[in-house]
TrEMBL record:
<dbReference type="InterPro" id="IPR009057">
    <property type="entry name" value="Homeodomain-like_sf"/>
</dbReference>
<dbReference type="InterPro" id="IPR014875">
    <property type="entry name" value="Mor_transcription_activator"/>
</dbReference>
<protein>
    <submittedName>
        <fullName>DNA-binding protein</fullName>
    </submittedName>
</protein>
<keyword id="KW-0238">DNA-binding</keyword>
<dbReference type="GO" id="GO:0003677">
    <property type="term" value="F:DNA binding"/>
</dbReference>
<dbReference type="InterPro" id="IPR052411">
    <property type="entry name" value="c-mor_Regulatory_Protein"/>
</dbReference>
<feature type="domain" description="Mor transcription activator">
    <location>
        <begin position="8"/>
        <end position="113"/>
    </location>
</feature>
<dbReference type="Pfam" id="PF08765">
    <property type="entry name" value="Mor"/>
</dbReference>
Length: 116
């Protein structure tokens, strides 16, 4: 079945969004394809109503992926495995120290804010 042709890229974007959401839902959950496609269509319609008419920029996610990596490093950190983590994540030993120091600081600030 051929994809419909549109005058602008907007409808194509919504069709692609719907398809990507359906694929992701199917891969991440146990839902069947038909239900995943319903979810994809619902998400596309919702985004259309929320952001319709706006120019939306999707960042490459480099800083988001880095923060996810840093959180993983901190969770795996046991106090003595700096070198192993540096090798595993292909970063310098100094970077591991910095990540641990930053995450500890953030954790302490979060605890202090909860106590206030």
């Amino acid at each position: 079945m051929t994809e419909p042709q549109f005058r602008s890229k907007g409808p194509e974007l919504l069709v692609e969004l719907s398809q990507h959401v359906a694929d992701t839902v199917k891969n991440v959950t146990e839902l069947d394809l038909q239900t995943a496609e319903l979810v994809g269509n619902a998400v596309a319609k919702h985004m259309m109503s929320v952001w319709g008419g706006q120019n939306v920029y999707f960042p490459m996610g480099i800083s988001w992926r880095a923060s996810q990596r840093d959180l993983q490093i901190y969770e795996e950190f046991d106090g003595r495995n700096h070198s192993a983590l540096a090798k595993k994540y292909n970063v310098s030993l100094q970077w591991i120290y910095k990540i641990v120091r930053t995450m500890r600081k953030d954790e302490l600030q979060a605890k202090q804010q909860m106590q206030e």
